[in-house]
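Model it.
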Amino acid sequence: MQLFPDILARRAADDPDRIAYIFLDDNGAEHTTTTYRELHEQATAVAGLLRARCEPGERALLVFPQCVEFITAYFGCLYANIIAVPVNPPRRGKVQDATRAIVADCAPTAVLTIGGLLEPLRSVLEPLCTARQWLAVDELATADASFTPSVADPDSVAFLQYTSGSTAAPKGVMVTHRNLVANEEMIRHSFGHDRESTVVGWAPFFHDQGLIGNVLQPVYVGATCIQMSPSTFIRRPLRWLEAISRYRAHTSGGPNFAFDACVARAAAAGELPDLDLSSWKVAFNGAEPIRAETLDRFAKTFAPLGFSDRSVFPCYGLAEATLLVSASGKGRGPRLLDADIDALADRRYVAAAVDRGRTLVGSGSVLPGEDLRIVDPDTGNLCPPDRAGEIWVAGDHVAQGYWGLPAATAETFHAADPARTYLRTGDLGVVVDGELYVVGRLKDMIIIRGRNYYPHDIEHTVQQAHPALRPGSGAAFAVPGRDGEKLVVVQEIKRDADADADDITGAIRAAVLGEHELAVADVVLAAPDTVRKTSSGKIMRAAARKRYLE
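Modeled.
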């Protein structure tokens, strides 16, 4: 089995001048280009210093903006058998609560960053941190030519991928070298990748989609990746499509909101940019609930630029399975299913009657090398074909567990079965004709008067209720009431909203009652950017609920 240290070293030896990464600035201009040889040499410089100052298995915190130095630091950790811990860098001198929790949990020995951030980082992180070594990787001397990477045990921990904390505090997923190559092979197979499959990415590197999909997959297949910063995408979504067109990208994608953002920006501009999207064969959509109307709007909006609806590529995954669990298949396009709302509330699939349906988007099929089951979360028994249940997954891509949390590891990663153990994903799904449809999140489920409601369905209804409401920026959850659980909706309004608050809340209550036959006990209208989200754009409903109750 070839692990990533071997893979990168071989790329550097066999194809040294091939470009591994191109980084673009906010205007789309190239500012950094790195070959496989340069990547290997810079990674060995980092590894040499880590090997001299740290013990194998110790943790190194990776605190970087979106830059090539993150990648060299990450591979340097792999080369030296140091466990990498990517984190979100501080913003405007403030350390995020999630980063504070990660630092306390993993107890790093070293902090790796760039020279311009080293002293500011020390000033804010040193009081929280046990690290003895603070290293600026862009200021290191060239590595000794005789340096050889350490031989890694396939089942040793390669890095800690901290979960985004949409339903709980971040937990460090222990991803092994074996997990990495197993999942990268699943990605290569389902996405149809080879060395000519150029990738464009903008997801942050501390997020599993950015790291596993956009940083490591290109190295795995020997391709080139064009990298943008997340902030560039947020400010100028069409820069993403410009890069895809310019570099003739085969693969690029992001969460559902990314596709909505492009459509909204194109509509605001009043005309389409002069682009050619015909090379884009895999437009993957994952990391949050996938909306059928989003896929349709995006495909129709950008069809005049050569984009094909058959390139739409819904997929599903989670950090506990390294990244990918199911995928659509290259060139197949999405599969949709109209399911009866009342039946779904009882975790059953029944084809919808007129006006009583919810359109589910398929997340693809089970991939080679894994076993996926739909299980009743209360009994642990397999669900019949027409029943929704918890998605359980087994395979070499399933991580070892949570760092320092044996009880949580046993509960999540060691679901019992006569033949093997499974990962309990916490997600609810149903398999119809071989296609996985994810219908909700078990921990986010709203239960009122014995009936189940999926919060993202309610949120979707809310956000369509009035034009003053911001799409993708609200949370629905249940709180204790005098006569049982009651529904609360927290919803952001647009910055330029000019509407009466009573009109907005009345529209929300009427829409939820009409669509879900459910009364909203309380509506909170929130300012823009106050409903917290994870790095991948998921609504942090547990955080919203906690803040509301406080």
